[in-house]
Amino acid sequence: MGSLAEGARRATRCRSRKLATLRAMGCRRSRCVPRVLRRRFVYVAARKASDVEPSRKRQRLQEPPATGQCRPAERASANGVAQHAGDVRQASVVAGAAEDKRAKVDRAVAVGRLRKTETTFSVSAASPPAAGIAHDQQVKCELAVDVREARAKLRVLIEDDPFGDCPAPVSSFEALGALPEYALRSLRRHGIESPMPIQAQALPLVLKGRDVIGLAQTGSGKTLAFLLPAAVRIERRLTQSSPRSAATQALVLAPTRELAVQIADEATKIFSDSPVWVACVYGGGDRRTQEKRLSQGAHIVAATPGRLIDFANTGAAQLDVVSYFVLDEADRMLDLGFHDDVVGIAARLRPKRQTLFFSATWGGEVQDLARSLCAGDRRPVRISYAQQGCRGGFGGATAAAAGAAGTGGEAKQRAREDIVQEVVVVDSPGQGHWERQETIKNERLDLHLREVLGASADHQVLVFVSQKALADKVSRKLWQDGFQADAMHGGKSQENRLWVLDQFRKGKLRLLVCTDVLGRGIDIPSVSHVVIHEMGEIEDYVHRIGRTARGKHGKGHALVFFEFWEGAPHLAADLAAVLEASKQHVPEDLRRIAGEVASGRRAVRR
């Protein structure tokens, strides 16, 4: 009986040791692990213990153990199995985390966000958990640094990111992984191989479904930044075969007719191989033709506010299903007095929509308009390109901080550094100085235009003047001398203006003299030189010289005549600041005038 009781106790102790071993392996019950696997772990642990102390183990096995006492080999077996199981689990966790991180970095390398040579992986199966966490943090830091470097290289800045999840910029359109094939083919057909800086950051952000406020100067490529995501959205709707699939789904508002036509033309290029229909609505065009186009169905509508409101009131334009709303050149829209019209149009759209808001400046009125369009919990991300930084937030902590620091002001103006800015100061005080200065300017203008047009047949010149008569005079004189020149101003019909603009864009005209009708938004990539006959506000100056440096060489030249006027004494200092910010030469006469205004030696109009 004693031997039977002792055997039962030994069996119970053996079973207890097995259960303890399995618990150390992470199993609550022995049935969770197959019997063969349990025996294998015990066998391996016993072999490990025997290899460590073979002589002592053999000696102890020959001695009978005391009652209630387990042999050292058995303790070593349990401890070895527990340690081995812990090592296996730890190694699998660390290796799994490394594999996940390696996969993330490989995807980043594939889309061009990270250079693989900057990241190294060294993971040991026996690495402690702290090493795995440190490695994970190291990889995250490397990724974040690389994204910051990419944005700095592109001169793109994330001004406000309420949710903190702004994606990294992309280096190619294919890296987006969402654009329809017809859109990619269209881009390749028109020679567009890689996204411009504002597109590189805005495209993944818009495709993520976020509302976006983009601050960038004219000519930065904003049009494709909102047209390409529209292709993705409309493609998704077309596959759903909605009964109202031909209804307007994307609406783009523009302040001028010319800009609306240009946006519609760009959209037509992108969607030329697709079933997507594009319509353009603007005042001054044939009303019946536009109304017929809307009645046939248009997925994308580019419009000016006035004419669109007319069609919406008559029922020709159905805006209740629009889920993608774009406001281009918002600051210019406010300058032209379209604030109430824009707000009224937005009220006709679906409340649950995606809103994109593009502007060159970020003043108080522009912020108020953006706040009214992006109401509710749709907090937008604000990004800027080639700006010195924009004060003023949109909501939450950022807005509170901006309010504590001061009211939101204009973004500091800065022209692109690839535009050579030449400022000619025409300052002739005294009686009749305006007449003398006008004569000097016209003589210098005529000489400059002939030099530029005669230097190369590839040169195209855009001249901004303030008077219709002067535009006709300059263009007519150069036309008579054998140069392909024409004028474009508000005194000509809309059809004539569009025809002249098309001729200039195609290169059949080498010189175009225009007034403010071509001040903003119009994209003419082949312009090599810009001339500003009358210096206006600094914002208009930056927009106008932005017409150049868009061609294949990416370089341009801008000539501006500066005349001091008592009604705008600040322009001298503002222009000097723009030149310095753009690393351009500042004439000494301009510095002198700015200093005289600051010291009170120049008479100003209060």
TrEMBL record:
<keyword id="KW-0690">Ribosome biogenesis</keyword>
<keyword id="KW-0539">Nucleus</keyword>
<feature type="domain" description="Helicase ATP-binding">
    <location>
        <begin position="203"/>
        <end position="380"/>
    </location>
</feature>
<dbReference type="InterPro" id="IPR001650">
    <property type="entry name" value="Helicase_C-like"/>
</dbReference>
<dbReference type="InterPro" id="IPR011545">
    <property type="entry name" value="DEAD/DEAH_box_helicase_dom"/>
</dbReference>
<protein>
    <recommendedName>
        <fullName>RNA helicase</fullName>
        <ecNumber>3.6.4.13</ecNumber>
    </recommendedName>
</protein>
<keyword id="KW-0698">rRNA processing</keyword>
<keyword id="KW-0547">Nucleotide-binding</keyword>
<dbReference type="InterPro" id="IPR027417">
    <property type="entry name" value="P-loop_NTPase"/>
</dbReference>
<dbReference type="GO" id="GO:0003724">
    <property type="term" value="F:RNA helicase activity"/>
</dbReference>
<dbReference type="InterPro" id="IPR014001">
    <property type="entry name" value="Helicase_ATP-bd"/>
</dbReference>
<dbReference type="GO" id="GO:0003676">
    <property type="term" value="F:nucleic acid binding"/>
</dbReference>
<feature type="region of interest" description="Disordered">
    <location>
        <begin position="48"/>
        <end position="84"/>
    </location>
</feature>
<keyword id="KW-0347">Helicase</keyword>
<keyword id="KW-0378">Hydrolase</keyword>
<comment type="similarity">
    <text>Belongs to the DEAD box helicase family. DDX5/DBP2 subfamily.</text>
</comment>
<dbReference type="InterPro" id="IPR000629">
    <property type="entry name" value="RNA-helicase_DEAD-box_CS"/>
</dbReference>
<dbReference type="GO" id="GO:0016787">
    <property type="term" value="F:hydrolase activity"/>
</dbReference>
<dbReference type="GO" id="GO:0005524">
    <property type="term" value="F:ATP binding"/>
</dbReference>
<keyword id="KW-0067">ATP-binding</keyword>
<dbReference type="InterPro" id="IPR044742">
    <property type="entry name" value="DEAD/DEAH_RhlB"/>
</dbReference>
<dbReference type="Pfam" id="PF00270">
    <property type="entry name" value="DEAD"/>
</dbReference>
<feature type="domain" description="Helicase C-terminal">
    <location>
        <begin position="444"/>
        <end position="594"/>
    </location>
</feature>
<comment type="function">
    <text>ATP-dependent RNA helicase required for 60S ribosomal subunit synthesis. Involved in efficient pre-rRNA processing, predominantly at site A3, which is necessary for the normal formation of 25S and 5.8S rRNAs.</text>
</comment>
<dbReference type="Pfam" id="PF00271">
    <property type="entry name" value="Helicase_C"/>
</dbReference>
